[in-house]
From TrEMBL:
Keyword line: Isomerase
SUPFAM superfamilies, per database record: ADC synthase
Any single GO BP term: L-tryptophan biosynthetic process
Protein name: isochorismate synthase
Organism name: Natronomonas salsuginis
Statement: the UniProt record of this protein carries the keyword Isomerase: yes
UniProt KW Isomerase keyword: yes
Stated family: Belongs to the isochorismate synthase family.
Enzyme nomenclature, EC number: 5.4.4.2
Catalyses which reaction(s): chorismate = isochorismate
Length: 445
């Protein structure tokens, strides 16, 4: 990476020190997360190393309209002067976090402690790869000797952890409150389809929130482990505010964008049906979905928008075949899209260009976002927004934070949405929202 500041312009007290060691024995991911300091980080993604982060060596926050650029600038400064011995690529320093869905976002209610952008450099990071587990200790404004002492102490601590019991299953749900009644939903969907018919909109994704009261406190380490059993091919994440109160977590099937070298991987995921009772019924539902004009149209709007947004950056773009993505509770239409970059473009620039795709926003984007703001009676917060990580080179991986919830004390707020197009039926869309709550509801009740 091209360092931005010279020795003089990069103040010494921002210097990053990072040390890594390969562990011969490591606690499993659930135990590592259960015993981590707040704010904790968890990231598990298909084809990637799994990361458990403990505490924060430094936090980058941005609250302005230029939040994507502001995070990139702060990270460039952080990474410009460093004493980094990573040992393995996967164990290099990375910033983990995300953004709010809307540019205008209020850090209130369940979203207290969530600014418009926040990324943590974990103080201690465990990286689980196919060929071993690595421990990394990061620090800013500390001398190398202290960092090395912390590394030794952390190896000892990890060796002596006795496994906390898995908390005895899901916490259970004692009460539920919907943000949206069926009557209001019908009115909102009909208003949206009327506007689509009038040519003011082409697609809008409307969401609902569901607040549940839990019978017992939620153990997020257990919850993420349960989600991993049912959704091994999804992006599982946990982000916490600085004080650790109010974790945002989920298991999402949707990649926003990944960049490694000049290769960009993204895709379109939109169009939904349920799962069958038997393999034959699954196949029948999948075939029906792929042949359904409304769902294919809804999907193609997303695929076209992703290709168009990537074009200015790409030397080449390739879209794969439309296919079925089968999950434990639903089936989606998916089109993988890959591109080769013409230049060295930071992954956050691609995140900004793509978010929100019409899979979670709509078309035209501005009109759809205004409709979402005017219609939804709750704050989306970080729901359906980009979550993930990036490194000093501007490489990274981001998912769309759907199939998610934010939990605080004995409550959790779940979110789920659906794409509304011209011939959407309010009752069917209502049922689809309920289906999309299932991954998180099943992990809680
Ligand atoms: C908005 C959500 O899902 C999105 C909407 C889909 C649809 O309308 O078919 C499918 C997958 C996601 O892109 C959600 O799960 O909350």
């Amino acid at each position: 990476m091209e360092p931005l500041g010279s020795e003089e312009t990069a103040p010494l007290d921002r210097e990053l020190t990072s040390r890594t060691i390969r562990l011969t024995a490591a606690p499993d991911q659930r135990v590592a997360l259960a015993t981590a300091e707040t704010p904790r980080t968890f990231w598990a993604a298909p084809g990637e190393a799994t990361v458990v982060g403990s505490g924060s060596a430094t936090t980058i926050r941005a609250d302005g309209r230029d939040r994507f650029q502001a995070v990139q600038d702060a990270a460039r400064e952080l990474f410009s002067a460093g004493d980094v011995h990573a040992g393995a690529l996967a164990a290099r320093p990375r910033l983990f976090g995300g953004f709010s869905f809307h540019d205008e976002h209020a850090s209130a209610g369940p979203w207290g402690g969530y600014p418009r952008a926040k990324f943590d450099l974990p103080r201690t990071q465990l990286t689980y790869t196919d060929d071993g587990t690595w421990l990394t200790v990061n620090a800013v404004d500390t001398d190398a000797e202290r960092v090395e002492r912390r590394l030794d102490a952390e190896v000892e601590r990890l060796r002596s952890i006795s496994s906390p019991d898995a908390g005895g299953g899901p916490p259970g749900i004692v009460d539920r409150t919907r943000t949206t009644s069926e009557a209001n939903w019908r009115r909102s969907v009909t208003a949206a389809t009327d506007r689509i018919a009038a040519g003011e909109l082409r697609k809008v994704v409307l969401a609902q929130a569901l607040r549940v009261t839990l019978a017992r406190p939620l153990l997020l380490s257990d919850t993420l482990s349960r989600l991993g059993e049912r959704y091994p091919d999804c992006y599982r994440f946990l982000i916490e505010p600085d004080d650790g109160a109010g974790g945002f977590f989920g298991a999402t099937p949707e990649r926003l964008v990944g960049r490694h070298g000049r290769t960009v991987e993204t895709g379109a995921l939109a169009g939904t049906t349920g799962r069958g009772e038997t393999p034959e019924e699954d196949e029948w539902l999948a075939a029906e979905l792929l042949a359904d004009e409304k769902n294919v149209h809804e999907h193609e709007l997303v695929a076209d928008a992703v290709r168009t947004q990537l074009e200015p950056y790409a030397a080449s773009i390739r879209a794969g075949e439309r296919a079925i993505r089968r999950l434990a509770t639903v089936q989606h239409i998916e089109t993988p899209i890959t591109a080769e970059l013409a230049d060295d473009v930071h992954v956050l620039e691609l995140v900004e260009a793509l978010h929100p795709t019409p899979a979670v926003g709509g078309l035209p984007p501005k009109e759809a976002l205004r409709t979402i703001r005017d219609t939804e009676p709750f704050e989306r917060g970080w729901y359906a927004a980009p979550v993930g990580w990036f490194d000093a080179a501007g490489y990274g991986s981001f998912a769309v934070a759907i199939r998610s919830a934010v939990a605080r004390d004995d409550t959790a707020t779940l979110f789920a949405g659906v794409g509304i197009v011209a011939d959407s039926d309010p009752d069917r869309e209502w049922d689809e929202v309920q289906l999309k709550y299932r991954p998180i509801l099943d992990a809680l009740e």
